[in-house]
Structures are given as C-alpha cells and as structure tokens.
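Researcher: Go.
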Amino acid sequence: MTTAAPRIRPALLDALARHDDPGIPIAETCRRVGAEADARGLTRPSYERVRELVHLMRSLRRRRGPSVLQLFLETGAGLRSGPSLKDQMLLPREERR
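Model: Structure:
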C-alpha cells in the first residue's frame, strides 16, 4: 500500500516549484516530486495535493499588474494621481500596483 502525506514539507514545496513546468503534465511533476521525497526519506505527497498546489502556484505566477490602458483610465477617473501614472508606466507590468 502506498502512503501519502496530507501536509507537504517545505523542502518538497521547493521541489514542487522547481519541477513545475506548464509544458509537462501535472502527473509527471507529481512523479518527480515523489522521487525526490523518496530520495530524502519523506512521505510522498498525494497526486491530488500536488495538483492543487500546482494550480495555486500557476495562478500566483499569472497575476500581473494593471495594463497601461487601465492606468490611464484610473487616472482619468481620479483613482490615481498623475505622478503615480508616470512611475507605474515605467515599471514592468508584474511590478505595477
């Protein structure tokens, strides 16, 4: 019988982040993390938990700041000040607030 851990150790969370690649199936990521868990003598995480964590990590990576158009619209509506617009436009989108 295979055992699976409901909680994942920080070392395996790091391994999950390293092994996650949107170009490969989540099942392969789960196998890679499971192999690393075996090598470290830790309990393998369940496929379901790995799947949940992969989706969560991917959604966090996708979060991006507002577009330039959104910055202009918010400034025109008085939701942002002028200097803020200029400063924000010069930043990469991922760093905009």
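Model: The mean pLDDT is 80.
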